[in-house]
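Co-fold these.
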Amino acid sequence: MPTVRFDPTLSRSAALKQMTEALAAQGILGNDARFLVLDLLGLSTTELILHGDRPLGTPDASRLEAGLARRISGEPVARIVGAWEFWGLPFGLCAETLVPRADTETLVEVALAAQADRRRPLRVLDLGTGSGCILVALLSELPNAFGIGLDRAHAALVQARTNADRNGVGRRAAFVQADWTAGLDGAFDLVVSNPPYIASPAIPGLAVEVRCHDPLAALDGGTDGLDAYRHILRNLTLGPTRLAPGGTLAFEIGYDQAEAVQRLGLEAGFGPGRVTRDLAGHARVVCFRPD
Ligand code: GLN
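Predicted complex below.
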């Protein structure tokens, strides 16, 4: 891979153009160049517009070269920048958290649509909270809700706590280290999860951006990809964690898992699950409302 140099005398806007072209030459299109340049130069969009004619200087030129090399090697922009937007809110990331996906906003939409009264003091549980993106998005829309985010990874919980505080819902959020619902006592009005759901044999075939940069524990759903759903449904059936009467259980799923997850839910006594598609038209969420 040839190293791309940024001339320190280049203007910032010319540098953005060069970054865009260098990435396009590798087949990387879209907003990556803009996100990278803004973050690496520490500028807002407005600053880049107002001061786009200023020369880069040597430190910024080196930063752009290093960032470009990382992106070309397959590292996603979100990892280089260390943050990503979800539901219009900023989320910091760490090695133990999945990069929040736009597809996952479908889960938030379904969970919210199931609430007849968004002002109720709902009890929300997010299983495998990762960066906390789902829980934080929900709490930002449900002003009197209180939520618990569970995760196995301690570093993810630290990150989720920071994200909840940063987005103004920290006082209504608790983060607990646990393996699915293990040991958590109580009834919840809304249980959500975007668990690991990739079948283990499919993991080597994932794009390098995912396979090498998202945590394996957040991806690997066991032999058929359905282990997490089985665990969660069993735990919600056996207690002590329960779905409150009238409550909603909503899962993100892989595009080909709708029938299997509906069947698992039915077998566990949660009734028929309703499937919602994402913007790309893939089955993305199964929602159970047992009553
Ligand atoms: N709930 C987190 C998210 O949606 C983490 C999901 C996961 O790690 N599988 O980003």
